[in-house]
Every structure is written in structure tokens, then in C-alpha cells.
Amino acid sequence: MLTLSVFAEARRFEAVVAVLDRYDRDPSRLIPILQAVQDEYRYLPEEIMTYVATALDISPAKVYGVATFYGHFSLEPKGKHVIKVCDGTACHVKGSGDLVEALRAELRLEGKAKTTPDMLFTLETVSCLGACGLAPVLVVGEDVHGLVGKDEAVRLVKEIRRKEAGDGSI
Amino acid sequence: MSGFVTIDGIKVPIEGEKNVLALCRKANIDVPTFCYHSKLSTYGACRLCLVEINGKDIDASCVVPPKDGMSVRTSTAKIRSMRRMNLELLLANHKQDCPTCERSASCKLRDLSAKMGIRDVRFKRLRAERPKDSGSVALVRDPNKCILCGDCVRYCAEIQGVGAIDFAGRGSDVMVSPAFGKSLGEVDCVNCGQCAAVCPTAAIVPRSPADAVWKALEDPETVVVAQIAPAVRVAIGERFGMAPGENAAGKIATALRMLGFDKVYDTAFGADLTVVEESGELAGRLASGEKLPLFTSCCPAWVKYAEQFFPELLPSLSSCMSPQAMVGSIVREDAARAAAAAVAAGGAERVGKRVVVVSVMPCVAKKYEVSRPELSRDGGPLVDFSLTTAELASMIEEAGLRFAALPAGSMDMPFGFATGAGMVFGDAGGVAEAVARYVGAPVSPLNGRALEFVDEIPGGGIRSATLRLGDRELTVLSVQGLANAKLVARGVLDGSRRADVVEVMACPGGCVGGAGQPIDPDGSAVAERKRGMRDADGARELRTTGDNPFVPKFYAEVLGGEPGGHRAHELLHTGYSSKKRIQDTRISLVRGGEAQKVAVRVCVGTSCFLRGSQAVLRDVLASVEKAGLQDYVDVSATFCSEKCDKGPTVHVGSETIHKASAEAVMALITPKVGALAAR
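^ Those are the sequences you sent over. The predicted structure of the assembly is below.
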């Protein structure tokens, strides 16, 4: 039901307030605060960043500066499943470029788009994940997959789609 | 730290200098730098002020504290080569459209490139062209010219306490940007323009209306009226080889007529009117004991700052328009009366000519002020265009006038005459001084000043003086810089600071140090301009507003007699409203279904936040859910919906609840939902 998910929004906002309280509204703890906010929203919405700035008595431009400095923070909504393809030296040599191409084709991502219109997938490249022995490596959510070929990558996507279509439990 | 540092073979005593760069300057050596400003924190980013320390280390002299016995060399072959390389790298990504750039003559990057002997830039530009930000009425940003020295960022945060811009991004993508990549016009920028004044290049510049002014001057169907702020006359000469502080009021009048202006008035006349009105306001508030301290309202950057950050203080702001707006207002009133008289006399010669009011200001924020809807009449602005001192100087240059050689002209009457009190408005402490003179003794020969300020903080950013009024002793504060204004405002609100009058000027030094003045690279001109301002006051025989013969005449003929009267309020007073820091910030929490809905907006702005809006929001959400009303209400959290002193504020539909509780909100929601459900 629509209202249920909408109420989830309200709870998220309350969670932000709780996060601010947990960190004593201390501006020097902006980074962990933003991390916690991102955990709730999967990205950093503009109005929530303004709210955080107001609550911490720092300028919104400062919060924006921190949010744009760290690659970990996203200012765009991310898909439910985030796929990170390692593009460090070892993975690059082992063909991570082909993986990205195959995944972009499978996910029908065009131009600079990183997230599918149905908000199910976000595809990112990251620098070295530190698992060079398993190159090329990709991470889906929290799960690491090593020695991945193009077909294997596409299969992972299809599997997630199938599970999502079956039930919402994933 | 005491002792000596040997700089290029010269022994230089350490006398409280915090860094080697300051010591080098004392030894008459200009070590090149972009990012060092003595009034700001040190940053050490531009890597131009490199020096050799003790024969081995090469370091940025701005961040090295001096030590006794230290030996410094400032210009070795290695240092010169490194400086050149660093400059070349800065130039590589800098948009080099120097011949058409408005800072061409005052660009520090161009200046240092020439001085460091750069003849060739070996590196290619890698940065893609970035869009200009033209969304502010007062300032234009061009990120393609930014060299990331951070002067603007630190000025805005440290001196003005605003932080409207900051570094965003990382590595080669770093840029100085307002929050969320928005335009300066959409964020909490107060338009003081000091970012543009400290910018070594043209990455931020004031927005010039010169083309529109030229057009109006050319148009035979317009009467173009100029008004000159006090601080302009002691600075404009700097652009024409005159000494800072030299009073050029007469030359300005001559130049403006040669450019084609029909009338030349003195904004200081408006200042004299401000003194009368503000004194009346003060007397009223002292009598009632309400709305004290009286905060001045002449500085538009301060007014916007107060609207954004201290809405609960807005009732304490003087309701007087700024002198700029007052002159705009009375010029229009005068023109309307003259037109009516002409029609009545049958000779309607002037009717139909449009009056265009152009102000010349030391200020960038005045460009924003003229756009304020509160300062308009009959659908048009009171002042059409606001030029800075520097922009008028450029128009004079464009017309080829030899400004320094022009004979002195005089301003037009009746609005071209001002007393010494009107003149000192341009200097920090001057507005308070002028009011103090008037309330002390409206008409009297005055020698010396009415107020003797003493520093309350080092540097004099907050100063206080005592004014004896009958048997009362009033505390008068003069505040420079909005970060200092924040300290005072907080002190007033929490009761830790007592004052009766608080004058706030956003720019250090007051209007003489405004961002619209000619670029003053080392900050030495401000003191001279202040002296010029005080000389302009001291040279006058008529030094208190009560001495201005045109003021009572104007009150009698136009304002219906008495100060503070009905007509004076219509023509000379204004209002303020609380403003959001960032536009369009509303957090949607519950969106009802397709049916018609009741809109509930809970303010979570700073003030309401402190008054517990959070708990109200939580309880309202819980109650809505419990009652199963989700489909019929839109709940959102908004920032500041005004009336902060009565927070927490909640809007339900078109109704507003102050000091809201969840019960009160639900009591309003329930019948509205009932009415909706019944349809």
C-alpha cells in the first residue's frame, strides 16, 4: 500500500533526527552523521543535508563540500542493488572494462547514467578493492565475486531480477 | 616570540608577527602570494610565497612562524623557478581572456605573472569549460577563472559568518561553489561582495548595470537622476591617480553631468533624513522600553543576514529605509508632485518623462537592495540601478574623461546638501554617531565627536560607547563584519549582552571598505578613506542633522510636518520578512493518496527546532497513523515559516498555529479531514 512506504519516509527522517542526537549535534562528527544518513536514504538528499547543516550550525555549503569530497557519498538516489566493478590496475588488466560494457548493455544504461530507471540497479566502478588475486572482481551489495567473466556478471543481474520478480524478500 | 630573523642578510626584529611572510613585508620585501590575507586564517595553498629557511627547507612563508636566529632567503634561483612553475600550473587551467576581462587592470594573477617573468605556459588546459553563475542580482561567478586560493571561502565564513560558498568536489574536479551547485542567488549569500573584492582574478565580480545606465542616459524620454553615497567620494579618485581619502565630490558632480545625468543628488541627504526618523524611533522605544536594542538598517547585507539567521530580531531593526532607498523614494515623490503641479498649471512639459534613479554606492549589496520588493512603488523600483564606485569609474574611463583634472561642480538642491552627520554614515560607527549627535542636541555647533568608542574585541570589530541622554546612560555598539554581528545578536537574545543601539556594517571599516570600492590589494586604502570621511565631516560648519535647512523644509512641504508621521512612514519606512537560507527546501514526509488532502507543514527551522518542533512532528505523525488518516494528509517538514518568536509553527491548510502542540494540530486536522471524507 502506498501509505505504508510513505510512512517509511517519515520514519527515515526521524532516524536522521536520532542520528543527530546520537552524535550530540557535534559539527566535528559530520562525516559519521552523513554516513548514517546515507544508510537510511541510500544517498544524501539535498533537503536532508540542509537540515543537517541547520542542526549542526554549519553552512550547507560546508556539508555539500564534505559530501562531494568523499567518493563514498552519493548525491543521487542509488538503486536497490549497487554493483561495484573494480577498475584497479590488476582488474583493469584482466578485463574489467569488458565487464562494465557487458553490464551496461544488460542494464540498458545509456550516456552517463549509473542507475536504471526502475531504481533496481546502480553500476559503479571503484578503485582497487584489495582482492587483486581474484581479478577481475565485482561486488553486488555486500557480496564479493572474484574471477568474474562477462557471462557470469550478466547471470548475476538476471538472478537478482528473477528474485525481485518472484517476491520482495531479497 | 622575540628576537631576530635574518631575511636576505637583513636582521629583522620579531614584534608579534605570526608568520615569516609578515616579517618579509616588514623588511620591504613583497613575497608574492594569492591566498594570504592578514585578517583571514592562513591556508598555505597557492605555494607562491615559498622561501628558503635556514639554508635547506623550502616552505610557504605564510605558514612558518618566525623563530629567533632563523635565516630566510626569499629569492634564490630554485625558489624563483618553483614560483614560476606553480604560476604556470595555475595559468594552465585559467581562462585567459585578459583583454576583455573586467579585472584585467586589477588582476593579481596577471600582475604576478608579469612580475615573475612568465612568458610562456607550457601546460595545456585540462579543465572543461564550466557554466557561469549569473543567477544573483549582485554578483557573477565564473569558475573558469578561479585559481582555488580560497580567499572568498574564508572571507565569507570567517569575517561574515555566512559560508555561502565552499570547496566542492575533489582533485581536478574541485571548485568553489554554493551549496548543492546552486546559484548564489538561491542560497544564503548576503551580497556583501567581499568575495569579489578579495578575489585575485575575476572568478567573482559584481554585476554591473552600466549598459542599462548608458541606455537610459541616451534615451530622450527619461530624466536620469544620480545619487552619490558618502564613501564614494573618498575612494573613486584612486582609479585616476588621486590619493586614497581625497574628497572628489565636486569632480564626481562634474563628471556625472558630462556623462549626461540630469540631476546629481547626495545620498547623505537621505542619511540626514534617516537620522531624524531613526532618532524618533529610538526615543519612542526608549519611552516604551520595547524593541530594544534598536538595530540599524542601512546595511542591506546585514538586513538580509538578520532575515535569514535572526528573524526573531526583525522587530528590533529600525524600520527606516536605507539612505539610498530614501533618496530614491523622495526623488520619485518630488517628480510626481512637480508633474502634478505642471499639469495643474497647464504646461505639462515634463509629464511623460520617465524618472530613472541611478545610485552610486561603495557597496555590492545595494544592487540586491534595489531589487527588494519592499522598496518599490507603483510597480517599479525606488532606485532603478545601483552602480558601484568602481563601475562609475569605468564609465568615466570609457567616456574618456580626465577625472583628476575636472573642475569641481556642485550637487543639485534640495537633495544635494548634507551635514557632517550625513557624511560620517560612510564610516563604521558613523550612523550611531550621527544619531547620537541629533538626539544629544539637534541644533548646535558641535566640536569633536558625540561618541567615543572603545574596542570590545581585539581589532575593534565590536566597539562600545556611552551616550548620556538626560539622566540616562545609553550603550551604543558599533559592529563590523557579520560574524561579529552574530556574536552580538546571540548575546542580545540570550541576555548576556545589553545595549540600546546597535549599528551593524557588514564590511570591515564600514562603507568606506565596501566591496564596490576600487580594488585595494593590500587593504591600506581603507584607513585613508576613513580619514577622508572624517575630514569631510570636520570641514563642515553644519555637523548635526538639525542644522540641515532643507530637512525641516522638506518635512513641512512634503512629509506633512512631523518626523515619524503618516506620510513619513509611507515614504521613508519599510518592512522585513524572515527568509529561508536555501530555496525550495521542504522534506516531504507523508503524501496522501489521490484524494484531496490537508496540507500540514511543520517548521523545523533553527528557532522552532529549539522550541521542540521535533517532538510535535513525531507526535503528529504518530497520531495521523493511529487515526488512519494517512490518505488524507500531506505532512512535510519545512524550514522557517517566519514568526520564529512564536515557534514551533505549524501550518494546517491556510491556518497557522503558533507555539503548537501535537494536540492542537490534530484538533485542526481532524475536522478538515472529516469534511474531505464527507464529500
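Chain B has 21 helices and 25 strands. The CA atoms of residues 99 and 243 of chain B lie 27 Å apart.

Shout if you want it in another format.
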